[in-house]
Amino acid sequence: MKRYLLPTVMLLCGMPIVGQTVHKGDVVVCGEKSHRFDAVQMLRSANVESLDGLTAEERSDLEFLYDYMPLADLTDYKPSFFLENVKTSIMARKEMTWGKNVPDLLFRHFVLPVRVNNENLDDSRMVFYKELKERVKGLSMKDAILEVNHWCHEKVTYRPSDGRTSAPLSTVRSAYGRCGEQSTFAVAALRAVGIPARQVYTPRWAHTDDNHAWVEAWADGKWYFLGACEPEPVLNLGWFNAPASRAMLMHTKAFGDYRGPEEVLLRTSNYTEINLIDNYVETARMGFTIVDAEGKPVSNAKVVFKIYNYAEFCPVVTKYSDAAGRTFLTAGKGDMMVWASQNGKYGFRKVSFGKDKDVTIRLDRTVDNNTAAVLYTDSFDIVPPQEKPNIPLVTPEQRAENDRRFAYEDSVRHAYLATFYTKETAKKALTDKGLVDGMSADETGKIADLLVKSQGNHEVMLGFLVRHKDKLQRAVGLLSSLSEKDLRDMQTEILEDNFNAWSNELCPRVENEMIIHPFKQFFEKTFSKKDIRKIQKDPTVLVEWVKKNIRLNPDEKALMIAQTPVGVWNSRVTDRRSRKIFFVDVARSLGIEARVDAVTQKTQYRKDGEWIDVDFDGTVQKVSDKGLLSLSYKSNGIIDDPKYYSHFSISRINPDGSTSLLEYPEVGTTWSSTFKNKVELDAGQYVLVSGTRLASGGVMSAMQIFSVEKGKTTDVAMQLRTSPTAVTVIGSFDSESKFQKLDGSEVSLLSQTGRGYFITGLVGVGQEPTNHALKDIAKVASAFEKWNRPIVLLFEDEAAAKKFNKNEFSGLPENIIYGIDKDGKIRKQISENMKLSHSGLSPIFIISDTFNRVVYKSQGYTIGLGEQMEMIINKL
User: Fold this and answer.
1) How far is CA 487 from the centre of its chain?
2) Which of 707, 697, 841, 671 is nearest to 764 (CA)?
3) Which of 345, 349, 325 is nearest to 336 (CA)?
4) Which of 245, 241, 242, 269 is closest to 255 using CA atoms?
5) Which residues are CB-contacts of 480 (< 8 A; sequence separation ≥ 6)?
6) Are 175 and 297 found together in one domain?
7) Does the pTM of the predicted model rise above 0.90?
8) How does pLDDT run across 171-230, given as a tens digit for each residue?
9) Measured between alpha carbons, how far is 846 from 823 in angstroms, rounded to an integer?
10) Same-domain status, 344 and 237
11) CA dihedral 610, 541, 662, 560 (to 10 degrees)
12) Nearest-5° angle of CA 785, CA 791, CA 794?
């Protein structure tokens, strides 16, 4: 879908640039008018009024969508797209037997909306409705929810990936998705057949690292939850029942100004964020008063609730104080850090929900204290909620039938996966097309890898290479610049735009933004050659043009889905995030190196070998003032080289007093690799958080606030606290227990492990908690191999053992023994001896010895499992 400008005249560097003809149905925003009127409201009105012949119902529903949709959806999708979605939603409501029973409130907020998360919007509603309507015909509403989830499992299964959420049809094309994508896909499918559905997040777990997303669907007056693409025989059941019972917070964003019964966390111009924690755990409500240094109430202070996760106090909810300085939150009964700020003042406090009552936070710290020094040091013991899962009853017959269907659905998906390229078939396709003539085997293999990674999008990628076989090096360079997810869903027009542009800045991506319209050749043609030369010589010309011509949406709480750069250009109104991306995309289109720095998230361009910070609010573009951090660490006897995100993190304290994490690469960033020999940081204040995650889920954390001064070095000593108690015996396990080897023979654990400590793991196959566990073990494989003691992984039956694909978990330790827990005897023994609350929940890991002593146990979803067990074995 192309976007066009009105025939208005705008000035750049004193030179006129004439816009192009506007086509009927496109967004209409005049450059000058957008400065005189409410640009966002004008966009909404222009889009709705561009459509003729609407029924009263269609107009009402369409106006509702436009009243609340984020700016990116206003500028980057045609009204005809949303009208088609509205018509399909109305059709489903009329044709599905339950449609008449869905209240208007729920239809408007949880059926009609097209957007679920931050995904690209597509035609999934229309496609899914056609495919699903006969499948769910005649079913009760609850059975229809279960049936839709079975259909989802035929299409998609779990695989971790980056944080960008793929569109539902792209997820189907790749057949894989992380939990955010699976739940976006499942919500889209349920809404397609008129069932109210919402994506539920625990933004961060309290008892382990990472987060999770699933689905709630409404049936006959009640909301139920389910694991997306993970069908169970009944509702309110998923592998996450147990970890969910330890959560501090669950929330969802209801489209529009939702007035339902749930606790409201935040109302914005786009959505209402509601708190769903009461549906899952025992909760407590706590009140907060924000005061200044003199004790006077502070209104409209930003109050951020943070959960310890990935070695930071991670923001999970943002609220604002009222005129009396008050706010509140309902959460699970565990610990959070609460950080309040306003106008460069800030304060914080660790709180315990269920123990503390009303809490006062004083804004008595200032950001402008920038001497090179450690300003604050303290430690905090963080305690998560206790596990109290509520598991619904499933009969053996229900479980057997669900397992049968599960296996069949796997076979349907595997048949589709078999159409993807393997390394061998990719090489053959390249050879057949004459693309690798004269290439070395290594060069051929690298191109074949790109086709393999593109999965269901391989025809697009191969076709692109074939069209440009005469310039294959440039074509391969472009594909090599893409992430694996981009290879899976990048479409032809985007590839062609970047390939045919004259800029050698090939990659179309700045961060995790939507890429749905070509833009590089658009900006090449829009700017005159004279203007391009001026900008290349002095990129501040482009900065000043953006400052002068692109209005910022003053609504800072609005949903910041990134607009496309052409959408920003056409509308001349944007948000702070989209402005960053717009600047970088335009600069790259004109041959200027530019980026959003991955660590600091600052917009920068490269000039004379230096990265210059872009300050849209200032008058001078310059390299930031820098100082040095000397971060020392003395081994605590367990961890010799702390890892970023696992053991420590650093956040910048922003000028307004809020915080932003320094986002160093997840792989390879350790104390010794990055911080041991001093690291350069922008001058300012920072928060260093370190912590040791205990097997109980608690954390022994420490926090230091320090300041970096221009041209000076700040010395900070990092501490990783350890438990004051040594490893203790927590239960017993018979080391003579028998299991079946994969060759069919029955042996005892002792006969395979020899004397000493060993690890026993009971694992599921294709289940998200097990996948995480095995990947975590692979991350620290060298530690287990150095330990040189056995790890026994047991599947529940022969079918599961055959289904397991070791190649999906590259890097697993060599000292793993695979087997089968025939008849579940070992699982039963561990469950009874360790008093596990739900024996069927996988994975289960224990560390024990041949004297039958258990010193560690873990069940279910535990991020960082490998590192937890590494700490234990280092103490043995």
Assistant:
1) 18
2) 841
3) 349
4) 269
5) 446, 450
6) no
7) no
8) 999 999 999 999 999 999 999 999 999 999 999 999 988 899 999 999 999 999 999 999
9) 19
10) no
11) -160
12) 150
